[in-house]
Specification:
13 helices, single chain, elongated, 6-stranded antiparallel barrel, Pdz3 Domain, alpha+beta
Length: 489
C-alpha cells in the first residue's frame, strides 16, 4: 500500500472514531441545543402521546346524558305583535281588546315545554349522579340516558346554586358503572385532561386538552375556584366529567367563555366531594360564617398598613353578634391564615370559611398594627349572604372631595347613629376621590389609620398626606365600612 492511501485510511479511521465517540455521549432519546448566550439545554424526546382509547373505554360508561323538560309560559297574541302590555301598550289602548279578540280570538297565555340537554356522571352503585345545578334547577322532569341506551327518570336530591352543583338519583336495578373521583388539589397546570359529555346533543363526545390554569375567579359567585382547560367544552357538556390520565374525575365541566376558543371552566371535584354528604342528607349545603366584610389588600393598602406584601384579606367591617365580634376582630385587621392555611388573597377566605364545619373551633392569624396575633374562633352558620360591600364616594381640593361636620340635623336626615367623622357632600368628576369610588353621603372615619372626628382633623390629615403614594381612607356607607385608597397618578 502506498503512503498516499495509507494516509487517507488513517484520516478516515480518525474521523470515524470521533463520530462513534460523539454518538456514544448521546442517548437515543436525547438531543442537545445551544444558542448564543444561552446555556446548553437537554430535551428529552418521548415516543409520542399514547392513545387514550383504553382510558375512554374504561370511563365512558359512567357518563350520562341528562335531558330536562321545563314548562314556560308563552305570549298571548297581542304580546307577540306588540310586546308585553305592562306598562300599557298604546296600540292596545287605541284599538281596544275587542279588536284583537275579533281578529285573533281570545288567546290566553299558552304553556310551552322547553327541553334542554346536559351531562353528568354516576358516582355510586345506588344511582347518585353529579351534574350542574343550572342543568336541572328548573326542570319539571329529568331523564337520564346511560351509555348502553337505557333511560331512567331522575329526581333531584340536593342542589347548591352558589357552586352550581347538583346531585340527582336514578333507581336502576342493574349494576351501574361508577366514576372514580380523584383529587383536584393534586393537578398541575400543563397536566393532560379528557372531557366527556354531550355537546349539542352529540352523545359521549370525547375531547382532550391540558389544565390551562387553576383557581380562576370568573364572577360566577363568592366561591369561585375554577379549573381552566383548553379541552373543548360546549353547550351540553355542562355537568360532565373532566378526567385526568388515571381515569379519575378531577372536575365538573361547567362554563365557557362566549366567543372564546380553548377557554373552558370546570368545578374542582374536591369542592363537590366536600358537600356530597350534605347534599345527600339535607338537600342543601350549610356554610360556615365569620361575620366580617372583607376586601382586597391592594399594593396601596399594603403600603398604608406598613405591609411588605399585598396578601391576606382586609377586614372592612365586623357584624354585630358575629363570631368575629365575639373574639374581638376589628376593622383594619388583616387575616393572613385560617385553620392553618395561608390566605394569599381575599378570594381564598370565603371558600375556606364556607367549607368549614359549623361549630368548629379554628385558629386564625391576623396582622394588627404591624403585629401578628393568633385567635381561636368558633365558626357560625351563614344565614344570609346578601350583605356585600356596596361602593359609594367622598372630598377636598387636590383629591376632588368636599366634606363637612356631621351636625345633628345631618345625622337625623341621614339616619346616622354614630356622629364620628365627616360627611362627603360633593365629589368632583374625574378626581382621585371618584376614582376611589367615594360618593356623596359617605362618612370618612379614618385617614392614614388616624381617626377623623371633624373637619379640622380631616384638613390636618389631608395636608400631611402624599397623594402620589396613596392614602388609605376608612369609609362608612350605610351599614357597611370599607377602606378606599386615594391616589393621583
Amino acid at each position: 500500500m502506498s503512503k498516499k492511501w495509507l494516509g487517507i485510511l488513517i484520516l478516515l479511521v480518525f474521523v470515524a472514531s470521533g463520530f462513534i465517540y460523539a454518538k456514544s455521549k448521546l442517548t437515543p432519546r436525547e438531543s442537545w441545543f445551544s444558542e448564543t448566550n444561552t446555556p446548553v439545554r437537554k430535551v428529552v424526546f418521548e415516543k409520542g402521546l399514547p392513545s387514550l382509547s383504553d382510558l375512554v373505554k374504561g370511563v365512558k360508561p359512567a357518563v350520562v346524558n341528562i335531558s330536562t323538560t321545563t314548562v314556560v309560559k308563552g305570549l298571548d297574541m297581542h304580546e307577540r305583535f306588540f310586546g308585553p302590555s305592562n306598562p300599557p301598550n298604546p296600540f292596545k289602548d287605541f284599538f281596544g281588546n275587542d279588536f284583537f279578540d275579533r281578529f285573533f280570538g281570545d288567546s290566553p297565555r299558552r304553556e310551552f315545554k322547553q327541553r334542554s340537554l346536559g351531562s353528568g356522571f354516576i358516582i355510586d352503585k345506588e344511582g347518585y349522579i353529579l351534574t350542574n345545578n343550572h342543568v336541572v334547577e328548573k326542570a319539571q322532569s329529568i331523564k337520564v340516558k346511560l351509555s348502553d341506551g337505557k333511560e331512567y327518570d331522575a329526581q333531584i336530591k340536593g342542589r347548591d346554586p352558589k357552586t352550581d352543583i347538583a346531585l340527582i338519583k336514578i333507581n336502576a336495578k342493574n349494576n351501574l358503572p361508577v366514576a372514580a373521583l380523584g383529587n383536584s388539589d393534586q393537578i398541575e397546570v400543563g397536566d393532560w385532561v379528557v372531557a366527556i359529555g354531550n355537546p349539542f346533543g352529540l352523545e359521549t363526545t370525547v375531547t382532550t386538552g391540558i389544565i390551562s390554569a387553576k383557581g380562576r375567579v370568573i364572577g360566577a359567585g363568592p366561591y369561585d375556584d375554577f379549573i381552566q382547560t383548553d379541552a373543548s367544552i360546549n353547550p351540553g357538556n355542562s355537568g360532565g366529567p373532566l378526567y385526568n390520565l388515571k381515569g379519575e374525575v378531577v372536575g365538573i365541566n361547567t362554563a365557557i367563555v362566549s366567543g372564546g376558543q380553548g377557554i373552558g371552566f370546570a368545578i374542582p371535584i374536591n369542592v363537590a366531594k366536600n358537600m356530597l354528604s350534605q347534599l345527600k342528607t339535607k338537600g342543601k349545603v350549610d356554610r360556615g360564617w365569620l361575620g366580617v366584610v372583607i376586601q382586597k389588600v391592594t399594593p396601596e393598602i399594603a403600603k398604608g398598613f406598613g405591609l411588605k406584601e399585598s396578601e391576606g384579606a382586609l377586614v372592612g367591617d365586623v357584624m354585630e353578634n358575629s363570631p368575629a365580634e365575639k373574639v374581638d376582630l376589628r376593622r383594619g385587621d388583616i387575616i393572613i391564615s385560617f385553620d392553618g392555611k395561608k390566605i394569599k388573597d381575599m378570594d381564598t377566605l370565603p371558600k375556606l370559611v364556607g367549607s368549614t364545619e359549623i361549630g368548629k373551633k379554628v385558629k386564625i392569624a391576623i396582622i394588627r398594627d404591624g403585629k401578628t396575633i393568633e385567635k381561636e374562633i368558633v365558626i357560625g352558620e351563614l344565614k344570609d349572604e346578601s350583605m356585600q360591600i356596596s361602593r359609594k364616594p367622598t372630598t377636598e381640593k387636590d383629591f376632588g372631595i368636599v366634606v363637612q361636620d356631621i351636625t345633628p340635623e345631618i345625622a337625623k336626615h341621614m339616619n346616622l347613629k354614630d356622629k364620628k367623622g365627616v360627611i362627603v357632600t360633593d365629589v368632583q368628576p374625574g378626581s382621585p376621590a371618584q376614582e376611589a369610588d367615594i360618593r356623596s353621603g359617605d362618612v370618612i372615619r379614618e385617614i392614614g389609620r388616624k381617626p377623623i372626628r371633624n373637619v379640622s382633623d380631616f384638613k390636618a390629615a389631608m395636608k400631611s398626606a402624599n397623594i402620589k403614594e396613596g392614602i388609605v381612607v376608612l369609609i362608612k356607607r350605610e351599614n357597611t365600612t370599607f377602606y378606599a385608597v386615594l391616589r393621583q397618578e
